[in-house]
TrEMBL record:
This is Uncharacterized protein. It comes from Noviherbaspirillum sedimenti. It comes from the Bacteria.
Length: 291
């Protein structure tokens, strides 16, 4: 059940992409707002089992996660309705009326409704002539898609910058790291010294280039900013240590003052506002690490 990577860059409109099965479920649940089509037992699992809970135990009653619908199987009348819409979507794809972003077809030639994705914008346009209109469920799905795409795009850009960085260019690395003129000249001298030493020892230019590449990459990796995942991991570790030390990280100002005092006793100088700002980020970081 992979998320199609290419959609990170091809789904700028309409909030993202959606599986055929999930699309049909979302549409029928929004349609149900009109009332009376399904009984409570049929639709309850799609709302009750996926309520979000924050790390401090607060429940968000109205914030469901329609992405999780892929793991839930509709029953009774809802199952029949979802199957009917999925079949209609497949017919539209076969006729070229609906273009899939990612198409998965089995050996029997049947389109897989779970692994086939379409743009949400195309799906909403497809719905309207059929008397369906996006509602709260579709809006919640779009919110989730926005988060997925923005995080994936951010991480992809960070990695691309690392791969594209001109590692051989000592001047670039000096500017990137904010080195003063003395440090820059020292670094450039060291690079040239290494290059000349390797060449004198009989290594080929290709080997020398590879050695300098590895050195430059390691320097950049050692000095690159934290990625989102690394930052969230460190914040989660801080939360664990706070719990162990009986420090309430949700009381930002008070706990920041206590941590600052502890740091001073260790001979460390950390601003109280800096500590407080990091403590405020802990709840969001924990949500990404919750099992």
């Amino acid at each position: 059940m992979d998320y199609p990577f290419q959609t990170i860059f091809s789904s700028n409109e309409g909030g993202g992409v959606i599986r055929l099965k999930v699309a049909a479920i979302c549409a029928w649940l929004d349609y149900e707002d009109g009332g009376g089509h399904f009984n409570e037992e049929e639709i309850a699992p799609f709302f009750q089992t996926i309520e979000k809970t924050s790390p401090n135990g607060n429940k968000y009653e109205d914030q469901i996660d329609p992405h999780a619908f892929v793991f839930l199987e509709p029953t009774e009348n809802l199952a029949a309705s979802v199957e009917e819409m999925v079949n209609a979507l497949i017919v539209s794809i076969d006729k070229g009326q609906l273009k899939p972003v990612f198409l998965k077809v089995g050996l029997d030639g049947v389109i897989d409704p779970v692994e086939t994705w379409i743009l949400t914008s195309d799906f909403y346009e497809w719905l309207e002539p059929r008397g369906f209109y996006p509602g709260d469920v579709c809006n919640d799905y779009d919110d989730g898609e926005g988060n997925i795409i923005s995080h994936a795009y951010e991480n992809a850009c960070e990695m691309r910058k690392e791969f594209e960085a001109p590692y051989f260019n000592a001047e670039y690395r000096g500017l990137k790291k904010g080195l003063d003129s003395k440090e820059f000249l020292q670094q450039r001298y060291e690079n040239l010294f290494l290059q000349n030493t390797l060449l004198k020892q009989g290594f080929s230019p290709e080997v020398v280039t590879e050695a300098l590449t590895r050195q430059g990459r390691q320097e950049d990796l050692d000095n690159r900013p934290l990625r989102t995942r690394e930052r969230n991991t460190l914040l989660s570790i801080i939360a664990v240590l706070c719990e162990e030390a009986k420090l309430n990280y949700t009381r930002h100002a008070k706990t920041a003052g206590l941590i600052r005092d502890m740091a001073e006793r260790m001979g460390l100088n950390i601003g109280e506002s800096t500590i407080e700002n990091h403590l405020k980020k802990i709840p969001d970081a924990l949500e990404t690490r919750m099992k």
